[in-house]
Amino acid sequence: MDNYKSNIFELTKKQVFFFDLDGTIYLGKKLFKGVPELITSLKKNDKYFFFLSNNSSLSTSDYLKKLNAFNLNITRNHLILSQHPTLDYLKKNRFRKLFLMGTQSLKKEFEREGFKLTEDDPEIIVLAFDKELTYERLAKVTQFLLKKDFPYIATHLDNRCPTEKGYIPDAGGIAALLHKAVERMPRVFGKPDKEMLLFKLNELEISTKDAVIFGDRLYTDIKMGKNAGVSTCLCLSGESTLDMIKNGEYKPDFIINGIWELLNEFNKI
Ligand SMILES: [Mg+2]
Question: What angle, 0 to 180 degrees and rounded to 10, lies between the N-to-C axes of helices 104-112 and 60-69?
Fold first, then answer.
C-alpha cells in the first residue's frame, strides 16, 4: 500500500457516505465485522449514508429484507439500486411494455411500478442480472435485437458477481454473449454512471467535496466516485487486489482492508 493513503481518519469528517454492498458490506450471506456498529456510529454522528448495488437479481424489497435480517435497521431511503435509475428512464420516456430479462423477484418490482411485461410485443428490451436465464429467452430476445435501432437498455454491466463460492457471470457476461449474436450493446444505468451519486447529493444539497464512496471494484465503484468528484476508498475485502490497483486505470484516494477500519476511526472521535 506504499503510495496510497490508508489513514482514513479524515474521512470521518465527510457528511455523506456511499457504500457498495457485495464485497464491501457483505460477501453473499456473510456480513463483514463491525457493520452494525458502524451504522450506529454514522447515525450517532448525524451522517447521511446510502447502500449502492448494481445487483438487480434482487428487488428493492429483497434488499431491505436481506439487510434488516442482519439487524441493520435501515429503510428504503438508504438504498440506491441499479433498477432505480432504469425505472426512472422508462417512466420519463413513456415505455409501457417491456421484455425484462430478469428474475421473478425483479419482474414483480417492475410490475408494481406499472409496467406490462411481455416476450411477444415489447417496446424495449431491459437486461438485468437474470439468474433464471434460459436459452429460450436468449433466442427470443435475439429476434428483437436484430431489428435495427430496437431500444435496448441494461440496469448495469458488471462482468461477474462475487459469491461465497466464487464468481458467477453477471449482466455484463450475458450482454457479451448477446453481443456475439447481435453486435450491439445496451445503454447502461447503474454504476459507474456518476448520476447514481449526483442525484442524491443534489437532493440533499450537499457538495461532492463532503462525500465519499467505499467499494471493492475499480471499474465501477472507484470509477464512478472519480467521475462524480467524490473521495474514493477501495476495500480489499472483495474483487480487487493491490496488483489490480497498480496496473489499473482507476486509482482510489484511499485503500483499506475492509469497512471495519472505518469503524475504528469513528471510535476515535
Ligand atoms: Mg462490490
Answer: 120
